[in-house]
Amino acid sequence: MAAELTAHELIEKHRPTLDQALEAIRTRAYWSPHPEHPKAYGENGSLDAAAGKAAFDALPGSRLDLGQPGTDDWVGGEVSPYGIELDVSYPHADVDVLIPAMRAGQRAWRDAGPEVRAVVCLEILKRISDRTHEFAHAVMHTSGQAFMMAFQAGGPHAQDRGLEAVAYAYAEQVRTPGTAEWTKPQGKRDPLALTKRFTSVPRGIGLVIGCNTFPTWNGYPGLFASLATGNAVLVKPHPRAVLPLALTVQVARDVLAAAGFDPNLVALTAERPGEGVAKTLATRPEIRIIDYTGSTSFGDWLEANARQAQVYTEKAGVNTVLVHSTDDYKGMLSNLAFSLSLYSGQMCTTPQNLLVPRDGITTDQGPKTFDEFTADLARAVDGLLGDDARANALLGAIVNPDVKARLEAAAGLGEVALASREITNPEFPDAVVRTPVIVKLDGAKPDDEAAYMSECFGPVSFAVAVDSVTDAVELLRRTVREKGAMTVGAYTTDTETERAVEDVCLEEAAQLSLNLTGGVYVNQTAAFSDFHGSGGNPAANAALTDGAFVANRFRTVEVRREA
Amino acid sequence: MAAELTAHELIEKHRPTLDQALEAIRTRAYWSPHPEHPKAYGENGSLDAAAGKAAFDALPGSRLDLGQPGTDDWVGGEVSPYGIELDVSYPHADVDVLIPAMRAGQRAWRDAGPEVRAVVCLEILKRISDRTHEFAHAVMHTSGQAFMMAFQAGGPHAQDRGLEAVAYAYAEQVRTPGTAEWTKPQGKRDPLALTKRFTSVPRGIGLVIGCNTFPTWNGYPGLFASLATGNAVLVKPHPRAVLPLALTVQVARDVLAAAGFDPNLVALTAERPGEGVAKTLATRPEIRIIDYTGSTSFGDWLEANARQAQVYTEKAGVNTVLVHSTDDYKGMLSNLAFSLSLYSGQMCTTPQNLLVPRDGITTDQGPKTFDEFTADLARAVDGLLGDDARANALLGAIVNPDVKARLEAAAGLGEVALASREITNPEFPDAVVRTPVIVKLDGAKPDDEAAYMSECFGPVSFAVAVDSVTDAVELLRRTVREKGAMTVGAYTTDTETERAVEDVCLEEAAQLSLNLTGGVYVNQTAAFSDFHGSGGNPAANAALTDGAFVANRFRTVEVRREA
Prior knowledge:
The structure is a homodimer. By secondary structure, the first copy, chain A, is of the alpha/beta class. Chain A is built from 19 helices and 19 strands. Chains A and B meet through helix 1, strand 3, strand 4, helix 18 and strand 18 of A and helix 1, strand 3, strand 4, helix 18 and strand 18 of B.
């Protein structure tokens, strides 16, 4: 059967984008081929807002039959954090049937080579991009993100991260040429001459273990890095966030088939809540790569037990912002207020601990005591979220009851500088929407330390009074070293303090944002330019995306013979 | 104190070599800056043969005082496989003193950046290269390699592997620019603009655990990969092969000091036989990278237990040559005879199992039965080693009593096609020199399988009769999958068989040499062109050297601020 999409067509269509991505990861200047604005969609085959919404609305009551072998059952039951039942069912796999079927197409996929694999991946991303509006609703109603965030972070930003992984994977594979002629002089005798052929070979099957809060953004780097390096990929979504990844697998299977490859190179297995299938899958011998985003405990378990696999984890951390001084007090407050509020703080990059000298900070509006600063920050958050419509658009919904419980318990940990409020979402009255709580703690009190040295995932932050900026720097160091951090922020106009914070971040391998007062936030990273985590502290063993994230997903096999 | 060697001088001196190395790993054509011929040394500051020998001869009775902090004792006692006592003593470290001292210089080393680190490494390699004749004796009298092999493999080839690691490390670090300006358009509003600085930061301290047979060749890739990526490096040599790595550490410390860096960035700790210090060191929190060459059991232990570190291992494997057909029977026999004989088969790349169809093979000299082939191969080895002087020059000495015991036991495993002979070394009468044994086994007999499916390190090979070439291919697959392989060889004139062997090697990630009949041997690899192992089968989890070997030895920390 002739492929609908030939390699030649795909290369012609996508090679320029691949080349731009390769250039972007080299210069790390701003670049993205995926529009952020909802109105940019609707032409050239992409769904506009209405069509995307209609596609999403057609899903309830349906079975997402991916045509996979070894489907022994259908599972579903997702309930949106906005209160609606998604009522879509997905394949539950008999993995003893599915996994062997996934291997059948690997040889052809390997032999296709890095460039064809890259452009097939780009075609998958293109078709996902065309359906960004539909995906936005799917991400919104599984993660609880507000629509605009689900649209951007779950759409173009996630697609950027996928494309970035494809670019790194391609670049890594072609560092070694396909063939080489090797001729070694032997003085007066004939030279030794060999012809060598180098082939990128996959590890086997990559397992992507999805998360609840960013199913596409956190899922795409590993999925595309493994696929682009020749591996088959089995996607095991979080039971509460299946839909975005199920749609992704559907698109990937369609594109693979259209390009003449076995669609079983990408497959999905959904599970019932509490089934714990990830643990069983993760130690199967066929699974040679694992990408995981989630709790530290299961991440540590994977690293310790899935010894047959390359394991890439993003776990929990405790993110710190050190507040020492600023020449733009208002900008600092509004920047921080936004970071604490966005998606109700349910980001692995949201700041948790604000370390503030007990004696206060210096600002362009004069000195501010610790209490003044916390009060001003509370006012800034209140101001930002004062309007309910705006609050709903920023906060989204609380993703699960655990987050709500933590938020409620947090008020008992210390003096509350800003109490959490309930917000009503008129469109989705069952959504649990809460503003962030800010609790004051004392850095020197052991009881308080138990709170601020643990991750409290959700809309909870701690204003921690410390004796001096030196103590703040040391607490920052200890926090990153012991608990890990996806992000560190700092506000200081003092060169020496800036240098001290930088030193800690360089020594403990944490990514630092300095003096952000405008429209870039410590909890946001941009593909092709920012690394997401460093892979060098306990919060994550990988950085999205760098050479180390892709280089061990394949091996290079050499066949040499006399020339 | 001003540095004797400025960064500027070192860059001017070594940048052209670095650039050539970068080009070589990209094209994988033949290249080396390190001469293979002993007579090439003696000018421009390098020691000629006599001066190198004199330097080595001056060592006995000396204490190699490296000036390291925390030296609590002196240990030595190496006895050359050629029978002489080396009588050199080395620092035994109080690691609680040494390790903190090694960290003191890390910040300056980090801040020096990738290029300065690379050229400092190249200066170390240059000074080692100048003393190649001295190192040759040191490698000969610890590994048991014959002089010429110790000279080449322990000298220029090892230096090539070190330089290759520096080139990969440099390339990996500069894939991300030092700084970037990131400007994101915002429609009619001002663009978002950030200035980003990216810094390569080390993991911590790299531990190099040396081996007995190739102390420099197997030690240099990890040592230089870790050092060039900003880590300090602690070298723990094999108790019977300390001298070559101790001299290496001495040179490295001299160069670091001369370039204005802390010499403690590279240190040595020798141990008493049986002390087992590697196990204690490997799990210390400061040790973040481990490079190991040696037994499968300890390699597996490291991978399972040194969880705080990136662990790169080269362990044991069972190397196979599949013999099906040839159009150069004589060339095949002489090529195989050389591979089996070189360094008495004490190479991780030496073929062990020769899989031969029971019904025989086809050749340009007519069909040969299994027995005819084994007899002809035995004759070829006999012919190669018939002259004692030539035999000594090829075989070297048996490195330790375990190898001798295995060789002696091998004769009892099956019908002996070629018996091992004792050779006298007139210069070193105490050397244990033995020619290889070839034992015939039956691929279908379970008792024989126990022999050929285990690594029998040393001058032992098995001619394994198999029912068909299909069986041979399947046995090859099973051997690589279950036992691992550093090398695979095959002789066939049949396209289908060639394809089947290639498929196995691609699927099981093994490096394949096809139809070698001239002066290149399956057990030899060339830096900058061949990978040593694939890192994808049980024989090794890393390939020397590729992107994966260097990419996770450092992390990239980003500091971003508003532009």
